[in-house]
Amino acid sequence: MASYFDELNIRTTRQQPQGYNIDTSDFMNTSTSARSTVPEEDHFMQVIRQVVHTFLLGGFRQQNSGDYVQEEFLDNLISQLLEESQASAKGPPPASDRFIKALPNIPPTAIASEEQCIICKDDLHTSTCITKMPCGHLYDKECLVPWLKLHNTCPMCRLSVESEEQVRQEEEEAQRDWMYA
């Protein structure tokens, strides 16, 4: 199949760039004595070397004294963003110990042979200890308990279960009711 230019008998003055692989020694070489034979590569390598000097070799610290203000601003901005991301990354609280201890044990013979644990992807009919969440999802107990010690949700559907905070509030209410009843 001929190209558009061939079909219309148009000669192109621009040559097609040849593909090349950059050698890592050329990439990291900071001397200017080894020049490239391809003009585009020469300019490209100069830009890459400048970027390497600026960021990896600490070239930004040797610039004008006005850059100190910019560097301080960027440090403050990064610190603020990290603090905000850590503050909002709390997630759901852990499930209560009472809920974890009350998880039902399901015998392997009571489930279908194709059922898999959603966490570890092992076949549940080969597992020795299977448990069921209130939403109906089945898991290896060895997989689910560590999850519940970090989150009070089902790993599959995110149904919330009892958390330690809820247990504490219930106990406080029961204590208040006892005192004022």
From TrEMBL:
GO biological process: protein ubiquitination
Gene3D superfamilies per the UniProt record, alphabetical: Zinc/RING finger domain, C3HC4 (zinc finger)
SMART domains assigned to the protein according to its UniProt record, in alphabetical order: RING
Gene Ontology CC: cytoplasm
Annotated RING-type domain residues: 117-158
PROSITE patterns (UniProt xref): ZF_RING_2
InterPro entries in alphabetical order: Znf_RING, Znf_RING/FYVE/PHD
Keywords from the UniProt entry: Metal-binding, Zinc, Zinc-finger
GO-annotated molecular function: ubiquitin protein ligase activity; zinc ion binding
PANTHER family the record matches: E3 UBIQUITIN-PROTEIN LIGASE PRAJA (PTHR15710), E3 UBIQUITIN-PROTEIN LIGASE PRAJA-2 ISOFORM X1 (PTHR15710:SF243)
Record protein name field: RING-type domain-containing protein
